Amino acid sequence: MQFKDVIGHGPVKQRLIHSARENRVSHAQLFLGPEGSGNLAMAIAYAQYLVCENPGDADSCGSCAACIKMKKLVHPDVTFTYPVAPKEKFSKPKSVDFVTEWRKAVIENPYMNFNDWVESLEIENKQGSIAVEESADILRRLSLKSVESGYKIVILWFPEKLHISAANKMLKIIEEPPDQTVFILVAENHEKIISTITSRTQLIKINRISDEEMSSWLVHKHELLPDAAKKIVHRADGNYREALLLLNHDPEEEDDAKLFLSWMRSCLKFNMPGIAEFSETMSKTGREKQKLFLQTALHIARECIVMNYADHSMIRMDGKELEDFRRFAPFVNKNNADEFVEELNKAHFHLERNANSKILFADLSFTMNRLLHIK
Fold this sequence. Notes:
Layout: H1 10-21, E1 28-32, H2 39-51, H3 65-71, E2 78-81, H4 99-108, H5 114-121, H6 132-143, E3 152-157, H7 164-175, E4 181-187, H8 195-198, E5 202-205, H9 211-221, H10 226-236, H11 240-247, H12 256-268, H13 272-283, H14 287-309, H15 319-328, H16 337-352, H17 357-372
Parallel strand pairs: 1-4, 1-5, 2-3, 3-4
Helix pairs in contact: 1-2, 2-3, 6-7, 9-10, 10-11, 12-17, 13-17, 14-16, 16-17
């Protein structure tokens, strides 16, 4: 992966390239950014630049032997660590045990999130983690000399999942690594990383993708018309993973915004047949479509709050959609907005952890009935 394959973040790319060309590469860096921002993609592009045989002023060459290997994620001097879980013959699993699955998942979507990865592992309801066995394996990898590049690079994805025993075992080598060893930690939540790890890293902040950069990417890479790209950009809110889900959403299916309004009417009137029908309908859709619906609901809640209390230039709706939701907006007000958003986020969280969707949406409907009557 080259820098040109990473959406936006021009200043970050320039900073990383400049540090490499000036031979001022920090031995431990934390690429911190929200889901869908491209922090993993950026880390891989940076690693490729460091091992590239003919790096240019703006990117790796993309054609040397090192770049070709990086494209397949098989460069011997760039290794990956990521959360895993016991499965079949791997009672004490390490990242290397799932390297085939990892390469496939990342090549297909370097903007994937943690739950995408866990789902691809097919580990049922287990939550992946990075255990002490992985730390021992990292130490073993770094004890070997580099094979082709001057650098030995370890990309550690989701340090939030590091066991404290694993983190403690890695502290010394992160603080005093062998010469030309680079740790790149790729994370979403700074607060969930053990402080003794973060204190030893240089922070590289990856922000959400700007609307302009996302729109341009969708138009040129996915051949969308500008209006269609604009609609996706508004919903995705800087999250390219979310944009991909919206891009692949079947346009012939019932529009989620219309479904949301119908659901809200049933909740407001406490229409039990309507609530039951809604919950049944949602339970028959796939989990990703259920999550997309909740993302739509969160987007609508945000728009209602903006309509009620903020500068209207910030509204991301137009046309009939804007007209429909102007009438609904008063039901999301200063006295219930925080809880309204919180409940939608909680539902999304529980869906990602395999909650029974029929029960979840029924329960959420009852909560919405109460919130919608708060004036």
